[in-house]
Design goal:
With 345 residues, the chain is an alpha/beta fold. Helix content is 30%, strand content 16%.
Length: 345
Amino acid sequence: MLMCSCHQVVRAPELKQMFGAIGTAGGGAAIDLSTLKHRVDTDSAPAVYFTREITPKGLIAAYEALGRKAEGKVAAKLSSGEAGNTHYLNPALIKDLVSMVNATIVECNTAYEGSRMHTADHWKTIKAHGFTAIAPFDLMDEDGQMEIPVTGGKHLKSDLVGDHLARYDYMLVLTHFKGHAMGGFGGALKNISIGVASSVGKNRIHTAGRSDTLGTIFTLDNGAFGRNDTPEHVMFIESMAEAASAVSDYMGKGQRMIYVSVMNNLSVDCDCDGHPAAPQMKDIGVLASLDPVALDQACVDMVYAAPDGAALIERMESRKGTVILDHAAELGLGSKQYRLIDLDR
């Protein structure tokens, strides 16, 4: 199967019945936006747009605020979510935006045993989670992978991505911001690094370029690549930034990319976890930017500013999660400082 291009048309009321409520409005009301650590008022800083409306309308408003249209053959990159997980982006929430830009949803296989490591199983999960009901879907590495260069990397010389990436002119990066057991948090940068990497490419990133052999993530250097208290762990985090930079370079040095992140279901665990911890904080909103570093930094700052973010903060800090922001900025992928524009005001 090359691509599931024929999909069942499902109307919004039916999607609500299939997947529950589409979203919420008014999240993030308790956050004092003036306290965001990396927010500046400098015109030269990249803009990050924010709305508390976690609804299809809110996603479209955030996208349109950016003033850059997704054109040509558009890939909508998201996480399809491990079987058993319900925190991934709700198909009913993203349907209108994906349809508006006529996008194909894209994903790649994982590097660990589960419902998404093998192509046949992954397709079952994709369909069970409802994505083929709203748009065409392309599993980008089911036919193979291709190598794209990493410029200025400390650990990676190249990145292995699904070879179907070559089919697309533009990428709409739809990210569910949340915690992660190894990366600390999963944001836009992780979505285009680990997320766009092929199964083997994911292994390369996790091992900081040391191995393309699946199953070596937790065995190299006496298991150091699986522990967050080692120098090897920092190498992994930095390698994610390098892979993200490679994908951005491939897509016209970021000129053919746009980023929309949803801060809901804010578990300390990723959508790749089949049994994630229940969220301990309220939903916040939708953020969008043309700069993935600024976007992820703004999301991180929102968690720190939230009155109920302690659990997610501990997860990010214990896994050295913000190293990805530092290294991505060093590579010139984006800026940690940003202008926040509140679309609800």
